Amino acid sequence: MLPSGLSSVPGSVSSDVLLCFSHLRWNFVLQRPQHLLTRAAKDYRVFFFEEPRYGGRVIRLVRTKTPQGVTVLTPELPEGMRPTDVTRAQRRLVVQLLAELQPQRLVLWYYTPMALTFSRHLVGDACVYDNMDELSAFKGAHPRLLALERELFRRADVVFTGGHSLYEAKRDRHRNIYPFPSSVDVPHFAAAREAGRPTPMDQADIRPPRLGFFGVIDERMDLDLVTRLADLRPDWNLVMIGPVVKIDPASLPQRPNIHWLGQKHYAELPDYLAGWDVGLMPFAINESTRFISPTKTPEFLAAGVPVVSTPIRDVVRPYGEKGLVAIASDAEGFAAAAARYLNGPQKTLFAAVDRHLSQLSWDRTWTGMSKLIDSAIAHNTRLVASAGDDRLVEQTNA
After folding, report:
1. Predicted pLDDT at 277
2. Same topology for domains 16-182+361-387 and 186-357, yes or no?
3. Is 158 helix (H, G, I), strand (E, B) or coil?
4. Judging by DSSP bridges, how do beta strands 45-49 and 158-161 pair with one another?
5. Burial of 202 (0-12, 13-18, 19+ CB in 10 A)
């Protein structure tokens, strides 16, 4: 719905809008937000509001339309703006956007509580918090994040969590909270199982066996474990794919058998995975990984790549408990588990894997979320009707 104080423009087109506020950029790494919101675009006009970029001469909102129908909104702001001015500028851009869009129904979707600083004046037909990670445990977390998350929990009509462990930690904080662990696009990754996949040029000269990782390389990776594994098995090649963020690239271990190939497009991943013998998930066991639910677990398995992981709770349960993934706590354990995969046929493993994966899809995840959003909208509509008003009006100082 419109921010209070704005009136509808006669003759304007009304439609359902989903406005998402995210700390992640759309074109960074394809993960949960992109999977869900491209599916939401079949039901809503979806707008993805990113964090600002600096360097522009004027304050403006740069729009990019994706092939899937999502409109990416990037605030472009001048360098050197004070934090309070950044907040005011973003609030003004949001107000102008909604005045233009004139949504018939508005769903506000948050990935970051920090966006409340410039959007708390908005009133939607439903407010969703997709709590995909425990952001407060990440390196560089804003000191106000926890207080803003408490406010977002009060405002949200429905909360989703990115995994079961995060749900268990927060289920007492909201009346309408549901776990939606990360899912998988099985057909996309299953293409890696096809014979004759092309070998990427930068992997072609890396001899097997190849043990690989793909994803964001940051403080959540146990670099000491990677170093120790490479030293234990100099005859194995470790292929590491992904952008390096929040850590110094110079801190990455350098060994003849560790290959840092950088970020790759989502479409390219099956070609790389087709040439891997074992998938590695060498996550550190610390506060930043306590509640993660890695999307790469089912993605590795869909690609036909057996996995060794450190004991991340949402990997141990269900994947480790079902015997679909090997769990190891140190480099020696990783080496032993990987050796078992390299030396034995995996037909039995992947029969069980495929039964498990048959129950997973991003389509199914979005369908479940959409039903809960519709219920929240219906509940709010009944509240408005019982109050004898056309709309709930809420105004809070930004």
Report:
1. 97
2. yes
3. strand
4. unpaired
5. middle
Low-confidence ranges of the chain (pLDDT < 50): 1-14, 389-398
- Residue 288 has what pLDDT? 87
pLDDT at position 388, please? 57
Q: Which DSSP category does 16 fall into?
A: E
The 10s digit of each residue's pLDDT in 346-368 is 889 999 999 999 999 999 999 99
CA distances from 251 to 61, 181, 217, 236 (A): 36, 31, 11, 21
Residue 351 CA to its chain's centroid (Å): 28
State the CB neighbour count (10 A cutoff) for residue 335.
18
For residues 24 and 156, what is the distance between their CA atoms, to the nearest angstrom? Answer: 20
What SS3 string covers 252-303? Answer: CCCCCCEEEEECCCHHHHHHHHCCCCEEEECECCCHHHCCCCCCHHHHHHHC
pTM flag (> 0.70): yes
d(CA 222, CA 239): 15
Structure tokens at 188: 């996309």
Mapped onto helix, strand or coil, the DSSP state of residue 121 is: coil
Report helix, strand or coil for 41.
coil
Got the DSSP string for 203-220?
A: HHTSPSSEEEEES-BSTT
Q: Looking at the domain that runs over 186-357, which CATH code has it been given?
A: 3.40.50.2000
Per the CB < 8 A criterion, the answer to whether 228 and 330 are in contact is: yes
Report domain extents, the chain.
16-182+361-387, 186-357
Q: How many C-beta atoms surround the C-beta of residue 346 within 10 A? A: 12
Distance CA 55, CA 79 (A): 5
Enter the tokens of residue 332: 């020696």
The whole-number pLDDT of residue 138 equals 73
Please spell the DSSP secondary structure of 51-110, one letter per residue: --EE--SS-EEEEEE-TTSEEEEEEEE-TT--HHHHHHHHHHHHHHHHHHH--SEEEEEE
pLDDT for 2 equals 34
Is 16-182+361-387 assigned to CATH 3.10.20.740? no
* Residue 249 per-residue DSSP state: G
pLDDT tens-digit map of 108-147: 999 999 999 999 999 999 999 999 988 877 777 687 889 9
